[in-house]
């Protein structure tokens, strides 16, 4: 991948203001104005959190037109990292020799890690495993990690973290360990970041990386007491603007997705999927599952419905399962749910 020379040249010229685009995963992409001091603060916090030092080698395999990729460039500049850039692809380590390649730090989207771990050699181990094992930290963000992927991640010795953040917070402000004995379903807020919730239970964030402005999100969280190290933690429940109102009962689709993904993982299935509410004359909205490339037998479909019924209740049971050959994605590799639904309107559903 060629370096984003426009950004780097602008950065090195001492520019103090930058305009980046949001990913467009929850709406149309919009421009966000960020200052140099915000981006420097975020980069230093990442370096402090993961013990990055000048001369450490970092792999950049994300789109450098968006915040996750841009901040890898900024970290290189601020922390003195040696950057190796490759074109974004499903298997960014596929062209590297595991015997001679070393990276200290990298950030991936879930699909990239899933693809690399599925690319096994004659030994039966993932070809990229020696490279991954040599890292100080591996970040995965941009989308939720499935139970199947989290199981596969246990093969990696290096610490792997799910990140929480957005363009407005200049990349991540909280992390969740995904592998090893310290794995957790809770996000830990990074040092110097203040968080709270509004009347909806949605997270708000204040930090040096936000220029100390309060950023109000639409992410519903369960905020927990600080741990023994005085670190604030939260459990991410879903988005307030994705709640499904079915028959007068509100359902958080992310909770349904998690139950389905765990059930599929028991059958060694790990397709990408999402749950939405589609218009229904009787219920207002009916709950529908969209999955990528995987259909279910009648027995499996009934087992999925029963799992949701037992864990949440009858009102949350999906009414249909729709198989899509390939999900539509945003420029940053996230699932574009609205475009996927629109492209597959009238498709065959299992009910």
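^ Assign residues to that structure.
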């Amino acid at each position: 991948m060629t370096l984003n020379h426009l950004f780097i040249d602008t950065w090195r010229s001492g520019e103090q203001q930058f305009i980046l685009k949001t990913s467009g995963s929850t709406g149309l992409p919009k421009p966000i104005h960020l200052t140099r001091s915000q981006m420097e603060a975020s980069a230093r916090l990442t370096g402090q959190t993961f013990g990055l030092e000048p001369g450490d080698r970092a792999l950049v395999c994300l789109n450098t037109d968006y915040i996750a990729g841009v901040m890898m460039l900024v970290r290189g500049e601020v922390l003195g990292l040696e950057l190796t850039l490759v074109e974004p692809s499903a298997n960014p380590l596929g062209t590297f020799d595991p015997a001679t390649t070393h990276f200290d730090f990298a950030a991936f989207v879930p699909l990239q890690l899933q693809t690399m771990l599925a690319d096994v050699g004659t030994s039966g181990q993932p070809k990229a495993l020696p490279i991954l094992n040599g890292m100080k930290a591996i970040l995965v963000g941009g989308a939720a990690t499935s139970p199947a992927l989290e199981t596969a991640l246990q093969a990696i010795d290096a610490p792997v973290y799910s990140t929480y953040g957005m363009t407005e917070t200049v990349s991540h402000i909280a992390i969740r360990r995904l592998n090893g004995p310290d794995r957790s379903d809770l996000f830990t807020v990074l040092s110097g970041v203040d968080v709270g919730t509004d009347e909806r239970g949605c997270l708000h964030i204040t930090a040096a990386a936000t220029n100390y402005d309060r950023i109000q999100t639409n992410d519903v969280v369960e905020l927990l007491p600080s741990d023994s190290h005085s670190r604030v933690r939260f459990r991410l429940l879903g988005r307030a603007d994705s709640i499904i109102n079915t028959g007068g009962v509100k359902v958080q689709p992310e909770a349904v997705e998690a139950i389905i993904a765990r059930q599929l993982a028991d059958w060694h299935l790990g397709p990408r999927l999402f749950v939405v509410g589609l218009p229904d004359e009787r219920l207002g909205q009916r709950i529908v599952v969209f999955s990528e490339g995987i259909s279910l037998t009648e027995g499996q479909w009934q087992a999925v419905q029963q799992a949701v019924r037992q864990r949440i209740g009858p009102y949350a049971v999906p009414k249909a399962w729709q198989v899509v050959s390939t999900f539509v994605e945003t420029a940053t590799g996230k699932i574009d749910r609205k475009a996927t639904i629109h492209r597959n309107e009238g498709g065959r559903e299992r009910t």
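The chain has a mean pLDDT of 91.
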